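Objective 1b: paired records.
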Amino acid sequence: MKQFCLSAALVLMAWSLPTTADDLLIDDFETADLGNWSITGDAFGSQPAEGSLPGQMEVSGFYGQHLLNSFHNGDATTGTATSSEFTIERPFLAFLIGGGSDRERLALELVIDGTPVRSATGSESEALLQASWDVHDLLGKQAHLIVRDQATGGWGHILVDHIRQTDVKPPRFDTTALATYLAHPDAMDEPLRPQFHFTPPLNWMNDPNGLVYHEGEYHLFYQYNPAGNEWGHMSWGHAVSPDLFHWQFLPLALPETDAEMAFSGCCVVDHDNTSGFGTADAPAMVAIYTGHAPGRQVQNLAYSLDNGRTWQRYADNPVLDEGLADFRDPKVFWHAETNRWVMVVSRAIEKVLVFYGSENLKDWTELSRFGPAGAISKPNWECPDLFQLPLQAADGSWDGETTCWVLEADMGGGAVAGGSGSEYFVGEFDGVRFQTGQAARWVDYGRDFYAPVSFDNIPASDGRRIWIGWMNNWETSLVPTSPWRGAMSIPRSLAVRVVAFNSEEPAVLALVQQPVAELQQLRSETRKLAAVSAWPPVPLTEPGELADMTFELEVEIETADARSAGIRIRTGDEEFIEIGYDRFDAAAYVDRTRSGNTGFHPAFAGRHAAPARQINGTVSLRIFVDRSSVEVFVNDGEAVITDRIFPTSITPTIEAFTGGPTAEIRTTLHRLKTTWR
């Protein structure tokens, strides 16, 4: 009921944004037909659309119940819609617009005396966005509007709504919905809303960006759509936290502009003022990000002099332009040995990572390239990261000196569990070139961990390398949550360990990921559950005992001569998620086949496995369950499985099982507090 009330309130609020008393409405498309418009072709149909049309992704951001939509019978159709004539009587002409970005073939045009004098188009998003023209110089003139759709390929359609004349230029993004939502007593408490993972209050979120520590705060920027609950209008959302779990939402850091979206990137603190943006005593925070426009991706700068509260784009952007359409996601760090900044950035379609050097963050020189390498099935490479880590012995100990470098990159398809995913290489970096000594390995063996990025500028006294990933998969990204979509993983501290996953193959250098220690502050109650050596599964908690799916399980499995043992988190008679160890496969696994709502995409249901060795006859699992997510850390983080789930109930029962009487499973339960209250 909470979810329904909140969603309904937001919808009603969006519908209650009419023209002001001084505005002149040209059309809001709330009539039964397009009688005020002359239509040619078949793209626009004969009446306003009720949101999405058959075969179209979800359309959002329009006012009322209807809009002008040229997706009738798909992108291949063409046509025009021409308004009746009107007099320009206000200094601004405002409208909502979405759809494709091909300005030559898709446009809303203001026409005077037969000549187009203003033009606008979409930005490859089904979320309509507020836009306007300054028409001070045209006051008193007769005009009409033409909506053109001559495009026939992908994104070959245009969306228009709520055209009006107004005295005040409207803001690009409406922020009233966010304030209204956060003021609601049930905000951040929808049934599927994670309670100790970061989520945006409203709308779509994907990759983490610009993770940096500065002046006692962890800064999390993220790819964000301020206009809707699906991908589009990419801007940098922003939040800060003192402890990686309790987050304060801040205004947009880098909003989309008329010229380009703000794609992924990073943030550094320029302590030596190499850029000249700040001073040595008051260093600037500098964001290095990809500016995306159709057919062109470049690397830009923005800087902040007030701890990230406000941002100024660099006047001489871009600072790196190779004339490419797929050149993105810079990660920059200071390399002390060569006394310069180093950038790793992706030539995505070529599957090549390029290293650049700079003394001032503004002028960049290519140093070397890496790739193609790794999985051969991937369609692209993006969101790279490069960092130095402690190299641990097989028992997890570290001598305090030995290190290695890790290069990570992400693919939009072809990953180990299907769909998108991440791979990494372990090697050496000398300030110019990265060289690896072993084959690529998977970062996470679940389906829902993507584009992790590590924090910059964590104090040396802390010494950790911490990263966060997007907890989703591009193939199944339209998950059934509202009024938000997207979640971040638990922050994870990183190391590299020598691991022999079995007795037949040589040891490898494995990336070890562990939940940060700060997570333990959320434990509210701890108790040991009964040890189990039985089949069928045995309940470890009573029905109704757990009022929420926000807990941590520490599990030790001794299989002996049994094939498997594990845990079931049951949320219905035939609904559960199973987490266990299979001795025949030498693998830990998560099976979400019967985990609840799996039918929203045919690829969602499945079983995902990660290599797991027995250590003195035991496999240890650390399991975090947060309403709609499961993260499993195997043997102190030697492998991880991250999966989203969408159960029909959040009052679970925990069960345990073994595949034979000689096996045993021991479990400790930690209840975890919400971070939103």
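Objective 1b, second protein:
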Amino acid sequence: MRFALDHAHYANQKSENPFLLALADGGFQVGEMAKLHHPLGKDCKAKDNEVALEETNRWIEEGESVIFEAALKSGFKYIRVDILEITDTEIRVIEVKSKSVKGSGSEQLFGKRGKIDSTWRPYLEDVAFQVCVAREYFSSRGINLPVRGFLMCPDKTKTSSIDGLHEHFIIRRDHRGRAFCDVNSELTISMLGESMMSVVDANLGIEAVISDTESYGKEGWECTTFEGAIHWLEDLLKMNDRGLKIPYLPVGHHCASCSFTTPNELTAEGKISGRRECFERGMQWDQVEFEKPKVWDVWNLRSKRAIIEEGRWFMHEMTEDDFKQDLTDPTELSDQDELPRAQRQWIQISASRGEFKDVYLDTEGLEKKISKFKWPLHFIDFETTAPAIPFYKGYVPYQGVSFQFSHHVLHKDGTLKHAGQFLGPGLGNDPTYAFVEALYEELTQDDGSVFMYSHHENTYLNYAHSLLRASSPFDDVKTKNLLIFLESLTWSSGANKGLWDAGDRVMIDMAKLVRSHFWHPDMSGSNSIKAVLPAVLNASKELQVKYMEPIYGTSAMPSLNRSEGYSWIVRTSDGKVEDPYALLPKIGQDSLGEDLLTIERLYADDKVGNGGAAMTAWSFMQFAQMADEERRELLEALKHYCELDTIAMAFIMEYFLIEISKQ
């Protein structure tokens, strides 16, 4: 709270762009669709808090029964209720969320042992807070009806009965540049076919939150219950209102996820690190400590909480005793099939302890795997989305749509070519069918091995398989050929699990190759392709020499998006190779409020909706009113981004091959 209230002073790595947040999780459209279920509702559109309060108060006094974005206040607690419904017998606080439900049963809010499902807790805490404030507000006005809470969400058991459902919810910007969702005033819920929303009674969940005496007694919190936490936070706001400094909380394992931070906790772009302030006061750290690798930086470390609670903050303080297995010195590791998680973590820890000062590259293990590959090698990357409101008839909320791929081919003689790409504009037409058809044409020219990065591509080809089985625009023979093709590349997963065995040409996960056979200090605790690519380019003198020359985009190394020679090697001021992703044009600022590279950094962890720049930009094009030039610019940018993902895979493979040849 201390840092959030002073957002102009402190850096925040989470996006503060409400437009992007709503676009990423479908909040704009879900909210407007929910309103259509209450055609007589009054919409409180005022942005100013006091104006919104006055408007809400007036409507309540006039006897309005449904108010959208109702503003209620009690003390220092202020809420905007998505849908406030006042009946003769009760007051209903309905929070509209883009998180999906399966039916309207409240049992889905709880886990198998009867406790609140962890994925639902934030949503239940939200509506519980609103119910608490609403009770105080209405009680103070002499209205003593029971206040109950509900969640209204997209329902994955419901199927869209019309095409172009999303086209009724157009995103525009007002004269101040603020985005809003424009809905035709004549639109009714009946015009949208079957409703895609369900209302879940959240009152059992709210009671569970309020009665919980285990989750809110955190170190430094002056409370033991949810309602106690509300009162304590309100007291902090009162302190801030009187000009008093809000006290710092004790540091702990929770600091790992702090967003109020900067690189090495140094001032960046005029803003300071809140996390630095906490550790300076709580632990008396100086810059030396801030630059040391932390326990929370270890890749996929599940025991970090226990280690930090023992008072060990730094990676070099970890020992082999922290792992319940024997570990091998990184210098002696070789000929691995699949590197155990703990062993990979130990490589990173050993480097922080100064015991391993090299790049880990298991050429023996790599050579055995690469010897089984069939040439030429195909590298593919997909861009996809899973919208809350289905774009197409027959789809359910959050059903996956594949709209883009890039394809590079590496031949045994070293020839590299950007062989193909696909980008369906959508705009009312489901791109998945054309996507599969184009991919079939790309990958059936030979039987070379096909590579993906992580299992994302497998998941979406399974979605495409389900779609083709259910409804194919192709004749029976072509449909069968496409299904056989998809099965050859994949293993069955999700709803398809068990329908076929792993294909004879099943895609090879390059991320697994990296995790088992390669680690570079520049990667720190990340195996993302966006961390691996610059590490590989800095590790390989041969790649630097080769790609310093502007050969990419020439007849020697064709590209579908670059017609003139392009050099991938650019040096930073300290002599290192610049991250190629940082060299991409910063497109999207005017349309989306952030450029695509920034969006990728903010949302690529998939913690907000589907995440990622491509998903955000493409989804925006489906909903937004845009000029042709603006749309063309975004489409061209998407092609460059996707192309870089597959050439990155090719560069990584080239590096592996070069190093193997040296042995």
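The radius of gyration is 27 Å. The longest strand covers residues 77-86.
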